[in-house]
User: What shape does this take?
Amino acid sequence: MGVAVDLRTTVGSVDLAAPVMTASGTAGHGDELAAYVDLSTIGAVVVKSLGSTPWAGNPAPRVHPTPSGMINSVGLQGPGVAAWREHELPAVLATGATVVASIWGRHVEDFGAAAEQLAGVDERVVAVEVNLSCPNLDGGAHLFAHDPDATAAALRAASAAGLPMWAKLSSNTDRVVQIAAAAQAAGAEAVTVANTLMGMVIDVDARRPLLGGGGGGVSGPAIHPMAVRTVYDVHAALPDLPIVGVGGVVDGRSAVELLLAGASAVQVGTASFADPRSVRLVLEGVETWCSRAGVSRVRDLIGGAHG
Ligand code: SIN
Assistant: This one.
């Protein structure tokens, strides 16, 4: 028999009952997973990124399987913050979930506009993840997370929400540590590391890119080692900056890997498309792993792989 495990963790000023949440873009804008998971039992539901206005996203096809994962070019389809607050947020709050909002923009002022619409939101929305790293907008033309100044400017605008900010970064740059530092200096309480890796699938019969958006973002187990490395590097350089780890988490062990690399909590994304119960199963896997390993407080794992 193993030890009892305290699953609580904190990300900056945000206390979470458990270290496993949904990843933005993989659990809808509301209560879509509620039929499969008691959303009140996971760390948080992180909603798909929302703009300041409704947005239709990219042309189909938008998703395609890849070896050990998938590629997407959804293009940030969504109803916009105001409609989400009115029509979708109440349903997810009714599940008892802790909610993390997410916003995107093409330009700095778009982040400000989306953030202003979030101001004064229900207190169960505990943070806003600022998506600086979607590779699917205009072919990757708005990757704020590839530049420290652009990252800082978007975050300063996003502070209008008045919520703790988590900056969602990109592994598609060799400057991720510099950019994480810029995010912290601009007011981010934490960084989410990281978004999808840029990729492409060619339809060899058509001799054209397969996805409607051209390129896309690769996710799933194929990118897990890259996520672990990026989290490890950011934690090594900036040990006081809380990290939310994301990338190819499929079970307790892969989640624990990210915690040991330096993450304070993890997100489950692509696995939910294969099994919508995944976020809960990963959380149970973390608890089982800790219990068997004699780890009584999950937060004691954070950064444990560093010497
Ligand atoms: C998308 O909607 O294209 C994916 C979102 C993202 O990668 O941030």
